[in-house]
Amino acid sequence: MKDQTIIDRVRGGETELFSVLVRRHQQMAFSVAMSVVKQDADARDAVQQGFLQAFTGLKGFDGKAAFSTWLYRIVVNEALRALRKTQRGKAVEEMSTPPEAPSIANEALANLAKDDRARTIRKVLAQMPAKEALVLHLFYLQELSVKETAYCSGLKANHVKVLLSRGRNRFYVLCQETSDITNISDFL
């Protein structure tokens, strides 16, 4: 059953069908939240709050974007709220642009086998700043377009492109520094 069919039936009073949407999207929503907050408990809370907000706001869902895109946007907002809450009182780290990585870093991401790419990216994402990790996750793991990534993250498309560029560079550097990835050329 398609998401839109389920949504229409939930709006019609069959609220128990919302659990189908939860089961269908919970793993991806959790993964998106983890890329922002980096803590299991905070990610679970963000996903739970996100699904609650999605359920209560389902009548306002206009279908212009896919349900998953709309849900990820809600989850990202909840994850960012949780991140701000945990960072209150702490100085926000000023991100500096890393030195330019070789242009083959972009090709490296494209050429990795999908499973290897996902596993490698998830491992490195945990070490990256939240916004870079989020856009890399949405763009590469969820395979969203720049426009969809911008919508989900609440950023402008040009900012997403900048973060993708910085993120690719940081990804390259972190892969070289990761102890169990002994030779980055194995991935290039």
What does this structure look like?
The protein is an all-alpha fold. The protein has 2 domains: 3-87, Rna Polymerase Sigma Factor, Chain: A; 104-186, Winged helix-like DNA-binding domain superfamily/Winged helix DNA-binding domain (Arc Repressor Mutant, subunit A). The protein is 68% helix and 0% strand. The chain is built from 9 helices and no strands. The chain has helices at residues 3-11, 18-37, 40-56, 67-87, 104-111, 114-125, 130-141, 146-153, 157-177. The longest helix is centred in the middle third of the chain and has 21 residues, at 67-87. It starts with a helix and ends in an 11-residue tail after the last helix. The model is unreliable at 91-102 and 181-188 (pLDDT under 50).
Low-confidence stretches: 91-102, 181-188
- Largest sheet geometry: none
Oligomer: single chain
The CATH superfamily of the largest domain bears the name RNA polymerase sigma factor, region 2, helix turn helix motif
- Specify the structural class: mainly alpha
The SSE string, one letter per element, is HHHHHHHHH
**What is the count of structural domains?**
2
Count the DSSP helices.
9
What is the helical fraction, as a range of percent? 55-70%
CATH class of the largest domain: Mainly Alpha
Give a count of the beta strands, DSSP E runs of length 2 or more.
Answer: 0
**CATH architectural label of the largest domain:** Orthogonal Bundle
- And the CATH topology of the largest domain? Rna Polymerase Sigma Factor, Chain: A
Mean pLDDT metric: 80
* Distance N to C terminus: 40 Å
Percent range for β-strand residues: under 5%
